Amino acid sequence: MxxxxxxxxxxxxxxxxxxxxxxxxxxxxxxxxxxxxxxxxRSLMSASAPPTPTLAPTPxxxxxxxxxxQIQRLSRLETSSYSVQAVVSAERPGGLLGIGxxxxxxxxxxxxxxxxxxxxxxxxxxxxxxxxxxxxxxxPEVEILSRYLDEGATQLYDHQTGLFTQPDxxxxxxxxxxxxxxxxxxxxxxxIMKRATDDGQKALREFFRAVGFEVVxxxxxxxxxxxxxx
Length: 230
Hints:
Elements: H1 2-48, H2 64-72, E1 76-92, E2 102-117, E3 126-128, E4 134-137, E5 143-149, E6 155-161, H3 170-189, H4 192-210, E7 215-218
Parallel strand pairs: 4-7
Antiparallel strand pairs: 1-2, 2-5, 2-6, 3-4
């Protein structure tokens, strides 16, 4: 009798432990099903939601006229400058015994600037590829944009006069004109027109690439001669 009672007392805690295990398994299964349901519901919602529209960029159309307008804003493109110092003279012959004879020697400092007048560029001189990546340009010929003497740097080196002759200031002006011609001649002999052509193409090639063109071509433009009044 005593041993049977002990066995019954020992089985009660064991049954209670089994019940707790079953309850824990049921709760765990329910939590698992709940998590699966939540994840499945979210996937359905994301699948049924309409896609977010993507805005396409507005294409930029580049035309020859637009390119010409951008270039013309540069106005005159001064691409080459030449400065030189020269000694020039002017003389007036005199009469008997050198009466009236005069001669002046002056030192002049002159500058010649060559470049391209971009206002002369026309829309038909520019060809843009359909994809807007290439441009071909026929540039205006280079020209002498300005030339001048630095009057502040002009020096009267010598002024000779004959008997009974007063110095004539107009002879100095004539010598300065000769000096400007001498400066122009030196610039032309040094190849200012060729250098201005090459430098102009180089500067504009960098400009076109800066505004988005990948390939820049220039039509062969002959180098013009220097002005005839040199």
